[in-house]
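Hi R.,

Quick one: here's the Hydroxymethylpyrimidine kinase/phosphomethylpyrimidine kinase sequence you asked about.
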Amino acid sequence: MTTAGRRIPRVLSIAGTDPTGGAGLQADLKSIAAHDGYGMGVVTALVAQNTHGVRSVHVPDVAFLREQLDAVSDDVTIDAVKIGMLGTAEVVRTVTSWLREHRPPVVVVDPVMVATSGDRLLDEDASRAMVSLFELADLVTPNRAELAVLAALAGGSPSSSVDAALLVARTWDVLVLAKGGHDDGTTSDDVLVSASGVVRTFSAPRIATTNTHGTGCSLSSAITTLAARDGDWELAIGGAKAWLTAALLGADALEVGSGNGPIDHGAVVRAALPEPSWTDRWWDDVAGLLQETIDCAFLVGMRDGTLDSDVFAGYLAQDVHYLRAYERHLALLGSWSTGDEAAFWAAAAQGCADEARDLHHRRLAGTHADDPVHPTCAGYLAHLQEAADSGSAGVLAAAVLPCFRVYAWVGTRMGRAAPEHPFADWIAAYGDPGFADASAAATGWVERSAAAATPAERGAMTRAFRRSTEWELAFFRMPMAAGSAAAAGSSAGAGGGAVPAKATVSR
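And here's the predicted structure, written out as tokens:
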């Protein structure tokens, strides 16, 4: 697979499970995805564990393990394999036999033999069976305790970790990354040793956190993916080490479990590709409504100057009704806010009063001044009142925001009109730079509110914004239907002043 000229490695994890997602197969798949690989998984053992430890382990029949392995290799080209928890000698031999037949270009073995607590996770028979697997590996990634077991299998007991890694590397002609995450000191040092005796240390600041569950699994699967993608072990290890440091830095914020919690596999991805702002996501969500708005007959007629002046006057009459209520809601937001935000909403409320008094009444010039509230206008105002009645400043702010943003956006699409254009003053009002600035400021205040909200309140804000945008479209369609007395009395005229259907809105 390729994307933008870069090949996406297809990486198979052969490992046990962790239902809390911090270690084993689940952690491997997260690590692979975090490094832009396509992850696949074959289960060697079903482990009942959480952040406090392992409760029980169920090892399926090895015949089923082989069926899983064959199902993958019969169909998918595998670029790399990461092997984690195997558990029993029979499982080790089954995986080794399959690997001899289907060895991909990259093979990394994380020898899950000794737990952080010091408990042995493989019996001696299974440990001896690992010897044949090491002969097929490119890289082995033991922690210090596991390294001692491997050195013993190689027939020695060197006093230093580098000497032990060198013995293992030469015995099985494999690269050895001796992990130092459990050591003391201000840095975490992983040492890469080759069979030829080349030694390189990868160092990173030691992160003060107890949330390190699945660190070894995650690091080895990250290395596997990067090695398959980049073709260089040292580059892969350096990149994976930097990623792991960021994942450890973000671990405490996850708040997963009450014991030794997991690392944050997505920390680097989020930093590189931050989520769009809440208000931008809302705006993208209503893109279809916006297109319908700019294409509606009322705005098309205004833009090309063919809109009937009496239809426009009817629209202004309804807008006066709207602005009087909108002014009250903006003032209410001001009373619920403090400092600069309160001043902004208060100024916006005054702007509504000024606009209704000046631009609208000058245009009305006595016509339609006594028009009753149209059902569409009434529906929009009822929606805003519902937002106000929620008692949430965030929900009300989200509900009033489309009146800013939609009108400012329409202004950018309408362009400029010549002085003799029949609606030049109104088109200029849509495109007024001061109003665009006010729209941006309102968006900023709502964005801050959304970021600070609970998910439940943020969801209510999202729906309030979407609903108001639907009402904005209905409001622009309303005057064309209201051009006749019959349509003016209907709240569901075909196409024109139809009230937005609640059936289209998730509640």
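DSSP finds 21 helices and eleven strands in the chain.

Cheers,
M.
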